[in-house]
Every structure is written in C-alpha cells, then in structure tokens.
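Lab notebook page, bench 4
Experiment: in silico fold of construct C2
Operator: M.H.
Input chain length: 366 residues
Purpose: comparison with the prior construct
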Amino acid sequence: MKDNNVYCILHGALNNTNFGDYLFGSLFFKKASEIRPDSVLIADMRKYGVSELYRKEMGYSKKCGIKGFLHADTLVYISGGYFGEMTSDAKNAIKRYLRYFLIGRIAMALKKRILIIGVGGGPLHERFLRNTVCRIINYADAVTFRDSTTLAYFSKFIDCTKCEVTSDTALVINKSMIPDLDATSERELRSVISCPKKILIHIADHQETDHMLLKIIDPINQFLAENQDYGVVFTYDGYADTPIDSQPIISLIKAQSKAVYHYHGVWQLCSVISHMDCIVTGKLHMGIVASRLGKSVLSFPYNIGKVKRFYEQINEPERCQSLKNVTPDDIYKLLTKYAKVGIQIPKEILDKANRNIEVLQYELKQ
C-alpha cells in the first residue's frame, strides 16, 4: 500500500534516559500531532536514534527509517541543551555530530525544511562541529533559543537576526496536563502523603551523589529537627543502574516520615512533584517543573552553567548554588529562607515558553 503521508521528523536527545529530554519528546510529539495527525515520526537512526526505553515509556511504536525520512518535508530539532557541549574532547564531538547533526546536513542536502525550537547551545569547542551547527542554524526556517546566552554565543559566528530568544519549553506544563498519582505511586508515598509539608530529595546516580552525601545531609537534618511537620521523599529522575533503595543517603536523613519513589515515567514523576512543597535537586528540568508548579526549589548542580541561567532568567538566582562550592551552612540558610516560599514564574517567561509551541505549530501548517 502506498504511503501518501508527508511526515514531520522530530529529533533530539531521545537516546538517553534524561527526564527533561523525555519530557520534551512527549510534549513535542503531542503538539506536532495536533497539526499533523498520524504524520509525526521520531528519528530512529541505528545507535543514535530514539531509545527503546523511550519507546516503551511513551508507548511509541512507529518506525521512521529511510522511507519515512524521504517522505518527510520537515525536520524539527526539539528542545534540549544538545546544541552545546561541556567538554572539548574530539571523540565526543564526533559522537555529537553523528548523534544530532548529521541528520541535519542530510536534510539540507535533500532541501527539507528545518525548525530549531527552544534549544540551548554553546560552547562548541571543535571547529568542525561548530561550523556544522552554524550552517544548520543559518539554513533553518525558524530558530528559537531558550536563553540569551545561547543567542550571544552563536551571534559571535553567524548572523542571528532571525533567531528568537524564548524560554524553556518545559514551562508550558501546567496542572491540567499532569495525571493523578497511579496506584504504584500512591502506595509508595503513603507514609508521607498525609504530612503537612513534604520535601522531595532528588538523588543522582553518578558522581554528584558523593558530594550530596557530604554536603546536604547535616543541613537537611538540622532543618528537619526544627521543622518536624515535614516528610521526605527520595527519587531518581530516570532509570538507573543502581537501585535507589541502596543509596545510603536514605538512611542518613532523619525524618519522622520517609518514602522512596521508584521512577516509572516522566508524567508520574511530575505528579509526585505536584504533591511536594520543596524540591532539592541538582538537575535543570526537575527544578523547572517544580518551579512551574509553584513549589519551592533549591538547586545544587554539579555542572552549574545552564542550570544557573534558568534561575537567573526567572529572577531567583540565589536558589541555585554550585554543588562544588556551596557549604553545608549555605544549604541550611537557603533551606531556612526558601523552603516555605514557592516560586512564581513571571508571566513574560511563561509567554516565551508558549512561543516555542506557537512557532512549531505555525511552521508545521506551512
């Protein structure tokens, strides 16, 4: 049977288990499908395309392949921070090229439209990679950057007059989009859900964990001793190799009520966040979702760059401190000052986030 669909191909950092990237994959697929029902695919190149974990979590079973790509008229780079890199390693730069930007060069050669929506970028240390990304930006029909730092970086190399500064697309999330807790989540949170106040501690299953154990345990315990109406929930923000129950921080935090949430989907984690009062995290999109829902957020990232930019953008820079440099006393003071004070995102920032979706849907109608 002949395939008469003209497809839109979504591409981004969907080959990992990152909470923010899975959130973007879900949001963009939904919003693109509103304009092109049954004609949205996700790039699934071998090794570098959409992961099987993403397929399973999102219930996505379509295949793109060469046929789908040839039938497409538009390639969409969905939101994410993959237009930049943290290291100047040539090997990693080649992997980044193959993973994200080779498909853009092919789309250019085949005269397909390219949309770049709500990305963060820079620096790009390897010249070949930087030149490739700049060519794709120049070629694209529409470009929105999630912060002014990204615009300033690429403006050093190309004319970015057509590029628009917006904000992080995850800020389009609102309470109406978040599902109720499912039976599994309710069961796991049962011991704390009735507590007057609740703190969510996000545990990272990698190098940050050791620093967190050293720095946040004493100040959180001090805060909890003075505020005994708080229950504590521990969580990962994605699938991990190390079982969360084995993390020593869980037994070292002294709270009258504690619970461990076992991650099983981005939208259920959003639902868990919606039931909390304060979130302690080192990751960008855990903090963004919590901020959008009006929660208090204290962010201690190991790699602070892009995370700090978000809190500066929403006029809450003090809530974000480098995990490398912050002291236990700093953490205690921040908890005392902010744990009971929710974040209110300025309307202009929310409007800029919605602008990403407006540009996406307008361009897909063309």
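Observations: The first strand starts at residue 7 and ends at 11. DSSP finds 15 helices and twelve strands in the chain.
Next step: discuss at group meeting.
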